[in-house]
Amino acid sequence: MRVILLGPPGAGKGTQAAAVKERFQIPHISTGDMLREHVKEGTELGRKAKEYMDGGKLVPDDLIIAMMEDRLSKEDCAGGFLLDGFPRTLPQAEALDRLLSKMGIKLDGVVLLDVSDDVVVERLSGRRVCRSCGAIYHVSFHPSSRGDLCEACGGELYQRDDDREEVIRRRLKVYHEQTAPLESYYEGKGLLRRVSGEGATDAVLKVLQGN
Ligand code: ADP
Ligand code: ADP
Ligand code: ZN
């Protein structure tokens, strides 16, 4: 199972990826999570990426492509992977195509999680994430039964720096301008499946199980 999850920020990619990862036992590769880890650890990449991320802009393609070439060549990707947040631009998609063909593998599909801009703003303004295990919550739609602590591991829940309304608007604009063109790119290759992201959180898993 080699799949890309496409969709605007807040569509529910991370939430739905967790179920897919569990069911198919494949790594969930989120470029956002990887970058936040680099920022936390203060690596060179993290230092370069931080100001773009804080401003809701995309990190330059060459940095992302190098990071992903490295990640996809790791052994745990041999049996499949779920990409979340990559590719996000046409040059990234083309680089991924070249990389996969060099590795002699093909994508099985691209699932587009569709949600309206209003829903995105509502979701991201209430999103909370566990600092320890990365579990995703929402203050109204999916609150933790332990308040400010993670249900799964007891870790502290926090609000991401870029989940503020003005940055959310910027990220949405960036999505429509730079990432949405990937929808027709993958449609042209016959790989795209559209799924509503406004319903249940197992919609992606259901589509993939129908394979
Ligand atoms: P993405 O990875 O696409 O940015 P997340 O999975 O982090 O999105 O979800 C964004 C926010 O929306 C989180 O607070 C999450 O709890 C909430 N959320 C995700 N899917 C749904 C859904 N189907 N209905 C209601 N809220 C949802
Ligand atoms: P979202 O909730 O918007 O899906 P992510 O966690 O995927 O957020 O990404 C957070 C930030 O990390 C983005 O706003 C961007 O600055 C950076 N980022 C993540 N993935 C990429 C990518 N493939 N290309 C460029 N920048 C990226
Ligand atoms: Zn946790």
UniProtKB/TrEMBL annotation:
The keyword Lipoprotein does not apply. InterPro entries: Adenyl_kin_sub, Adenylat/UMP-CMP_kin, Adenylat_kinase_CS, Adenylate_kinase_lid-dom, P-loop_NTPase. Its EC number is 2.7.4.3. Residues 30-59 are annotated as: NMP. Keywords: ATP-binding, Cytoplasm, Kinase, Metal-binding, Nucleotide biosynthesis, Nucleotide-binding, Transferase, Zinc. Gene3D superfamilies: P-loop containing nucleotide triphosphate hydrolases. PANTHER family: NUCLEOTIDE KINASE. This is Adenylate kinase.
